[in-house]
Amino acid sequence: MGYDPEELTARTIFEVNPNLSVLSWKKKWKLYQSGERTEEKTALMTSSEVIYPVKVIAFVDPDSNICQYIVENLHEKHRYKDMLELTSTVGRIGSWECDLVTDKVVLTEQSLHLLATEDAFLNRLSLFRFIRRLSGLIYPEDVQALFKKLRASMRDGAPFELELGLKSKSQNGGNGRLQINAAPQLTEGTVAKILGTLQDISKIANRSEEMYLAMNTLEQAQEMVYWIKQDASLVYINDAVVNHLGYSKAELKQMKVFDFDPNYPKEKWPASWQFFRKSRTADFETTNITKNGREISVTVSLTHVSFKGEEFLCAMSRNVTGKKKREEIIELTYHTLNQSNELIFWIRPNGKIIYTNDSARDRFNYSKEELLDMSFHNLFPEMTDRTFQDYWQQLLDEQQIEFQLQAQAKDGRRGAVEVNMS
Q: Is the pTM of this model over 0.85?
């Protein structure tokens, strides 16, 4: 309080405590003499005449008949409390507690404010009722995600963080977004309560709804998207990479490109990095090895980017294993048709030839280009455009027909052929 002992003993209690009068002191003295310890909030004046709020515990020693004061400075408590409230308001962050023993959820006033509700009934609800009440404030898919995170945290004792979308608008007019953080508290190895914070992240780092939608689009894209550092490590991986390669995101962030792409081994990676860095963009096919050892074919589009002074390769990759297999089957089928001894034609309803195999070209002595410029009935002198249409209608009715005709080659040679149309 700034007094010297001699200076303080020369004063009366009324000079130190501005709230006391002679009459009020007499009443308090009688109370103190009863032998009970009393506790009250009052004020004391320092030597520089500054008044501080204090809490006083007072009692009278029966042997000496002297009143003893035990004083607690409330100014420090109020100061820290005010500082915390200011931090909570300016930082737009509140706190909450889920007590698993009493099954009660408690939120601070700031947390209620961030949830865009002044509903006092939201406080001290059971966890189940609290989650149900949140459904009116937060998007259903986010409420479900929060409930799953809470259950996992209760079971495993693991902390978590999650973004939540508010149904109401934020102060800047966009869709409000909150980040919830949770830290389980264990007692004898069992989660007894979960403490956490709730923070408004709608305006953090100028975050916009477009950015959120862009990130959400990347996460749900069918293409594999990942960012590669110069040392071949991965700093961003979307869900498609996890789904196609079978590794978790945590596992992938411990890996390098050459751990799953055998075409870019460790010893050649520095040269590959420099090539891609110089090229700026590149498109190519390569092979990835999944966690279970299966090889998949992928097409990759790489772009060299710089962000906050660091260089990355942004890779967008598509699994084309199924497509390559289909192409192989088509190529094999095409080869089989071309090598067949049968004369094979594909024709349109108007008789136009759109495919013919090598045997047909050899038999009729026409080139591929000449046959593709002809109609099917041009190869059969007995068949007119009218009779071809009759055959086509019969084919539509019966799905498959057979008949015999005289075929004529380019050099005028004729011969009987059996035609099977389907």
A: no
Q: What is the DSSP string of 269-292?
A: HHHHHHHHHHHSEEEEEEEEE-TT
How far is Cα 161 from Cα 149, in angstroms, rounded to an integer?
A: 9
Nearest CA-CA partner of 317 in 214, 213, 228: 228
Distances (CA, A) of 72 to 42, 258, 266: 10, 65, 67
The two tokens of residue 393 are: 């209608």
* DSSP notation for 7-70: HHHTS-HHHH-TT--HHHHHHHHHHHHTT--EEEEEEEE-TT--EEEEEEEEEEETTTTEEEEE
Phi, psi angles (nearest 5°) of residue 266: -55, -45
The whole-angstrom separation of Cα 52 and Cα 70 is: 15
Closest by Cα among 204, 158, 166, 218 to 185: 158
Give the Cβ contact number of residue 303 at 10 Å.
14
Which structure tokens are listed for 34? 């009863």
Strands 38-45 and 51-61 turn out to be antiparallel
Q: Which class for 28: exposed (0-12), middle (13-18), buried (19 or more C-beta within 10 A)?
A: middle
- Beta 38-45 vs 414-421: how paired, if at all? unpaired
Distance CA 112, CA 120 (A): 8
pLDDT in tens, the chain (422 residues): 678 888 888 888 888 887 777 888 888 888 888 777 788 887 777 777 667 777 888 878 778 888 887 877 755 555 555 556 666 666 678 888 888 888 888 888 888 888 877 665 667 788 888 888 888 888 889 999 999 999 999 998 899 988 888 887 554 444 678 888 999 988 878 888 898 888 888 766 445 556 666 666 677 777 888 899 999 999 888 888 898 899 998 999 999 999 999 999 999 999 999 999 999 998 988 989 999 999 888 888 888 988 778 899 988 888 887 666 666 666 766 676 677 778 888 888 888 988 888 888 888 888 888 888 888 888 888 888 888 888 888 888 888 888 888 888 888 888 888 888 88
CA 365 from chain centre, in angstroms, equals 64
Exposed/middle/buried for residue 30 (C-beta within 10 Å: 0-12, 13-18, 19+): exposed
Tokens read off for 221: 């894209």
